[in-house]
Amino acid sequence: MKKQKIVIAAGGTGGHLLPAQQLALLLEQEAEILFAGHGLERSPFFQRNRFPFHPIDAAPLRFSLKALLRFASVSCRSIGQSISLLHSFRPDLVIGFGSFHAFPVLAAAALLRKKIALFEANCQLGKVNRLFSPFAHLLAAQFPFSKKAELVPLLPWKERRAPWERKAALEKYKLDPDKKTCLVFGGSQGALFLNRIAPLILHDSMQAIHLAGKEERVEEVKDAYAKRGLIAAVKAYEEEMESAYAAADVAFCRSGASTVAELIAHQVPALMVPYPFSTDGHQIANGRFLAKIVGGGIMALECEATPEVLSAQLKALLDRAKECKGALGAYAKECRGRESLAAKITRGL
After folding, report:
1. Which CATH number belongs to the domain containing residue 110 in this structure?
2. I want to staple 183 with a disulfide (CB 3.0 to 4.6 A). Which of 31, 33, 93, 251 is the partner?
3. DSSP element (H, E) containing 185
4. Helices of type H across 181-319
5. Could you give the residue ranges of the DSSP H alpha helices within 153-191?
6. φ and ψ of 328, to 5 deg
7. Structural domain boundaries, residue 238
């Protein structure tokens, strides 16, 4: 039987590219996959040696005259590139993962009346997904922000490793089993704000697993904890996040879509400070969802997040940790049994 052809339109940060690649792995036995989008040839989040891809020019849509003129100029060229690509590859489906990196490919697909599927990882539609949702045969989401969106499992869409025992996880990081552990991390873009402020807000009875984002930041963060006499396991990045979540009593983090999904899956209450420059404020929507709808944590805006405020909120989170953990577990249970996006796509081809 001839394989169906699928173009995955994606680019940008790990929040877009990681789920796109996870979906590609789930579909590759059923379909011929081609990635198309802006910046794929240089993205640290894209496995260029694993997936065939076609770079497409793109520019962000910003509301200044210079930016609008550049967007119009680049878009005319890049939509033409995308139309040529779609004519050549002849996909049965184009799947968009949001961000301006995917805009030209989705625009070409809409113009050519190709079947379109969209995935939105956040708690609200981003600009590009919002623009193309009227043309979509399928709008999928992991969070219930719209009645039109079909719910799919929480990220990540890959086989989960065996869960770590808390004792073994604490031993891995050489941490004290009698202290409360705070997991600090900033997601794929890192977080200079969290690196600077986290050592100032932990209480004396606490310790940290701190993922600093880059190797050159590790020693500086270690020194900050040492000055306060706090135990801290500081790394640039953690390949086995399951161990970090298993060791954590609470988390101090941003509120990207993948982060919120993992906090729910691992039932770790969180003090979240949304990245203030996220497109359309989607991290604020994500943080509000976890804190207010799920009941799994506390959200603080960065503009109001002084060390004193965050320290008090971290104490309040620890006091409510059992309640928050129960709420996260209840919501995770609700999410089980959802049909996967790969299954929905395969069934619809």
Report:
1. 3.40.50.2000
2. 251
3. strand 180-185
4. 192-201, 215-227, 241-247, 257-266, 282-288, 307-319
5. 166-172
6. -65, -40
7. 166-334
* pLDDT (tens place) for every residue of the chain, 349 residues total: 678 999 999 998 888 999 999 999 999 999 999 999 999 999 999 999 999 999 999 988 777 888 788 878 888 999 999 999 999 999 999 999 999 999 999 999 999 999 999 999 999 999 999 999 999 999 999 999 998 999 999 999 988 777 899 999 999 999 999 999 999 998 655 589 999 999 999 999 999 999 999 899 999 999 999 999 999 999 999 989 999 999 999 999 999 999 999 999 999 999 999 998 877 789 999 999 999 999 999 999 999 999 999 999 999 999 999 999 999 999 999 999 999 999 999 998 7
Strand order in the sheet with 250-253: 232-235, 206-211, 180-185, 250-253, 270-272, 297-299
- 236 and 109 within one domain: no
Long-range pairs for 307-313: beta carbons < 8 A, 24 or more residues apart: 307/197, 307/200, 307/201, 310/197, 310/201, 310/252, 310/271, 310/273, 311/200, 311/201, 311/202, 311/203, 313/271
Instruction: Tell me how many domains the chain contains.
Output: 2
Q: Output the six-digit token pair for 311.
A: 């320290």
Q: Which two tokens stand for residue 110?
A: 């809409």
Residues 226, 128 share a domain: no
Question: Cβ(133)–Cβ(139) under 8 Å?
Answer: yes
Query: Which residues fall within 8 angstroms of residue 20, CB to CB, at 6 or more apart?
Result: 8, 10, 35, 95, 97
> Do 220 and 287 contact (CB within 8 A), yes or no?
no
Residue 115: inside a domain, yes or no? yes
Question: How does DSSP classify residue 31?
Answer: E
How many helices (DSSP H) and strands (DSSP E) are in the chain?
A: 13, 13
Q: Which residue has the tokens 């979240």?
A: 272
